[in-house]
User: What shape does this take?
Amino acid sequence: MYREAIGSRPCLPAIDLPATGQNITRLRKAAGLSVRDLQELFGFASPQAVYKWQNGEALPTIEHLALLSRILEVPIEKLIIWRAE
Assistant: This one.
C-alpha cells in the first residue's frame, strides 16, 4: 500500500491533527451536537478533551474514536484526515 520509499525507509502517512480537529467539529455540528453534548455522552467531567480534539491538540483514543464514529454516524476512516506527503 505504501510502497514509495525515501532511501530504504517506506513513506508512511501521518495524521493531520488540525484538519482532523476541524473535521470532528464539522461533523459534530452537522449532527446537531454541542461540545457539552459530547462531554456528557463520553462521561467527561469537563469538555477539555473535546476542545483538544477540535483544536488539533490531541487525538481521541481508539476507544473514543470508535464511540465518536457511532455518535456521529460515520466510519472511523471518515473522522481522520491524513496529511499528504
In short: The first helix runs from residue 17 to 30. Residues 15-83 form a domain with the 434 Repressor (Amino-terminal Domain) fold (CATH 1.10.260.40). The chain has one domain: 15-83. DSSP finds five helices and four strands in the chain.
